[in-house]
Amino acid sequence: MSVIHITKENFEKEVLNSEKPVLLDFYADWCGPCRMVGPVLEEISRERADVKVGKINVDEQPELATRFRVMSIPMLAVMKNGRLVNQAVGFRPKAQILSMV
């Protein structure tokens, strides 16, 4: 499965109504640590069919960034059954990201 770009228009369908856990990456194109997390999330999305991986550009989706109280990026959030169950700020190695899910 590939990484899904999440917007306010598809948030309900892709995240809130997902039957799988959703790993969200709040990022911006200009953010160096965000660019380091990107390839790790691509890898996870290819390897783990049981997890949906989504990216939310905070510059393009300020409403979602506000909803999740994003103060620093990258911020990773895990949603299960439409509820936030875990989150972390900053770059994390793959093993730590997977342990969040």
Write structural notes for this entry.
This protein has helices spanning 11-16, 32-47, 62-67, 94-100, and strands spanning 4-5, 22-27, 52-57, 75-80, 83-89. The mean pLDDT is 95. It has four helices and five strands. β4 (75-80) and β5 (83-89) form a beta hairpin. The protein has one domain: Glutaredoxin.
Task: Give the topology.
Layout lengths: L3 E2 L5 H6 L5 E6 L4 H16 L4 E6 L4 H6 L7 E6 L2 E7 L4 H7 L1
Parallel strand pairs: 1-3, 2-3
Antiparallel strand pairs: 2-4, 4-5
Structure described in brief:
The protein is of the alpha/beta class and 101 residues long.
CATH architecture: 3-Layer(aba) Sandwich
Q: What's the structural domain tally? A: 1
Q: What is the CATH superfamily?
A: Glutaredoxin
CATH topology: Glutaredoxin
Helix share, percent: 25-40%
List keywords for this structure.
101 residues; alpha/beta; Glutaredoxin; five-stranded mixed β-sheet; globular
